[in-house]
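Worked problem 6 (solution included).
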Amino acid sequence: MKKKLTNISEKCFLTGEHLEKATSLRFAMSPTREIVPDCYNKLAGRGFWVRPQKRTLQLLARSKKLTTYFGIKVFVDPNICEIVKKLLTMKILKQLSLARKAGLLVIGSDSIKSSFNTGKLCLVISVKGAKNLTLGQNRYNDQVCYSSDLFTKLDFEEAINKKNVQYLGILCKKFKKTIQDDLNKLKDVIDFK
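Solution. The predicted structure is:
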C-alpha cells in the first residue's frame, strides 16, 4: 500500500528557505539514480523539496549535496528546468481537461463574463497575446484570479478539444486552488516577470 505524502519538508533542500506546500516541488530518485520531479507527490522512495525557481533548479543540476544526501552518485539532467516546465504545463492542462469534463470550465469571454456576473467564476486563464478581459468594475477582483501569457491556443485546443480558444474560466474553488498553485510554480520556473 502506498503511503500518502503530506507536506513534508519545512525547508528547501538547497537554500534552507522555509517552504509552503503551494510553493514547493518534490524530487525523488528513480531506480536509475536519476533525480526526477514528482509533480503529483506520488513517487515512492526518499525525496526532497525545493522551491521550483529557475535559479534553484539550475543549482540543483550542479549540486554535490545530492550525493551526500542519497549516499550514492546520482544524475540530474542539465535541462531540469525544461523538464519541470513541461511537467507542470501538462499537469495544468490535464486539470483544465478534467474541469471541463466535470462541467466546471467555461470557454470564451462571453461565458466568463456571464459566470462572473453570477458570482461563480474563480479563475481566468488566457493565452499569450490575448487582450485583457474586463470583469465588472476592474479586472482584478478579490475572488477572481487572472493568469495570462503562459499558454498558447494550441495548448488550450489540445487540453479541451476545442478550436480557437483564448479564455478559460474555472468555476470551482478546489480546481482553482490546484491550478493556481501549479501556475505559480510554472511562473517561477520560467522566470516570469
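Discussion: The chain has a mean pLDDT of 87.
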